[in-house]
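Recall the central idea of this unit: under ordinary conditions, the amino acid sequence of a chain determines the structure it adopts. In this exercise we apply that idea directly, starting from the sequence alone.
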Amino acid sequence: MVDFANFQKARLIPVTGIKGAQDQERRATSALLAVMRAVPSFAQTLLKPFGAPKGQVETFIEPEFKVGTQKIRPDGLIVVTRGNKTWTALVEVKTGKNPLELNQLHSYLDICRDYGFDALITLSNEVLNASGDHPTAGIDQRKLRSIKLGHYSWVKLITEAIILTEHDGLADVEQDFVLTELIRFLQSEASGASEFNDMGPAWASVRNGIKNGSLRKPDADVEQIVLNFQALVRYSALTLAARLGVGAREVVPRMARKDPKKYLGAQLKQLVDGKTLSGSIHIPDAAADLELEADLAAGVLRCGFSVDAPADGRNKTRINWVLRQLKNAPPRTFLSWSYRHARSPEMAHRINDLNDEDYLYDLSKEREISSFRIEVVFNMGLKRSGGKGGFIDSVVDAYETVYGELLQPFKSWKRRAPKLSEKVTEIIPEQDPVSPRGW
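Accordingly, the structure predicted from this sequence is:
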C-alpha cells in the first residue's frame, strides 16, 4: 500500500526555482498581488490605510509606463473599482537586504502624478521608524501633494495575513487555503521576505564599548544600533500581534512624533551614558504596557510592567493582592512598590522571598503604597543575529514570556460595588401638588 504521507504536496506558490534577487522580487510580487485579487478581505486590510475603497480588485505585474523619453516598469499595479470610482496604486517591492532606492521612488511618484494614480505602496524588509516616516530618506515632499506614499515591511504584511486567517477567520475555504499558502511562501527563507534577524555589523563593537566604558559619545554605529533596536521592538510587537490576533504595537513617545531628531538624540544619550536600550509595547485590554530595558553593561534584560495599587486596605493587603496574581511567576521575578508622593520606588524583592512567611522586609505603616512594579530579569543574548544565543531572540522571548505568564492573566484593581444596607428605612413618597385647573 502506498504511503501518500511521504509524498511532497503540490504547492500553490512553490519556493523552489528561486535563483537570485530579481527572481525573488518577481515571485514575491506576483504571489502577493495574485492573492490580493483572490482574497478581497486581505486586499482591503492592506489597502484601506492608503484610502482605497472596498470594491473589485485587479492586479498587474511589471506594467510599463512612459515618462518623457523613458520607459519605466514598476513591480506592480493595483486597481480597485467601486461603482464609478477607480482607485489606483503602483507597487515597488524589495526582498532580502535590498533597500528601496530614492531615484526609483521619485520616478514612480512622477508616474502617479502624470497618470492620475492615487498612491505608491512600497514593500521591503525595512521598517518604519519611530515617527512613522517612510524608511527611505530624502523623498521630495512636493511629489506627495496629491499622492499617498505608504510602506509595509514584509513582517507587518505577514502579520496581517496571520491575523486574518488564524484569528478573524475566512468563511470561504478556498480563500483561506490561498492566503495560508501565501503565508507559508513568505515565511520561507527562499522568498526573501525575512524576519528581523540582524542587529547590524556594529553590534559587537558597540556592545563591548558600552560594557568596558570605552564608548563615550554617540557616533554613526551607536545611531544604527539604536535604530535597529527600535525596529526590534516593532518586530516584537508584530510577533505578539500574530499570536494574539490583536493590534499589539510599539509605544511611541510624543517626542518621537513631534521632534524625531530630538528623540533620537535622547535615545543615543541613554545608550552611551545610561548603557541601556528601552522600548514598550501596548496590548489592547492588558492591565499595563509591556516594558523592556536592555542593560548592555550588565548583560541582562529587564522586562515587566507597572500597575496601580488598590485604593483601600492595609499595605500588607495590597502586597498580597499582587502576590495572589503572580503564583506562576517565572524565576528571577521581582516586585517593588512606590509609596504615594515618593520620588523613587522601594527596593525590589524576589517573589519567592515575599511568599515566604519568615521573610522580613520593611513596610511602612504610615505611607500608602500607590503602585507596583513587576519585573523579570533575563540573560541577554550576545550574538547580533537571530537564533539561539542571539540578542534578537532573547528580546522577543522576554516580551512573550512576561506577557504570557504574568501580564495576560493580571487583572487591574477595581473598587467593589457598594452594598445594600441591611437596615431598611421606609421612604414616604412626596405627594404631588394638585395643579390648578387649566394648567
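The chain has a mean pLDDT of 89.
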